[in-house]
Amino acid sequence: MSTLPYTGGRRGARSVTYVASQGWPFPSGLMLGFHARAASRDVTVDGEEIVEARWVGYDEFAARAERFRPDSIETHLAAMWLSGHR
Fold this sequence. Notes:
alpha+beta, 27% helix
């Protein structure tokens, strides 16, 4: 999980499950999508790589997800999460 070194999150997550992948053109990469449960709700930022990190509730996340590109892996992951958490 690439955010851990930058958000001060405790190392480790529970129930990490691969969901899907998508080609990423920068530069010829591959974006991988996972669902995981955080080991802790504690979040801090390093102020360089990441300047803001926070937890959001269902309603705020659903509102933000409406703006995701329909052809992206983030939309697929968000829809899966939202359908299981209402």
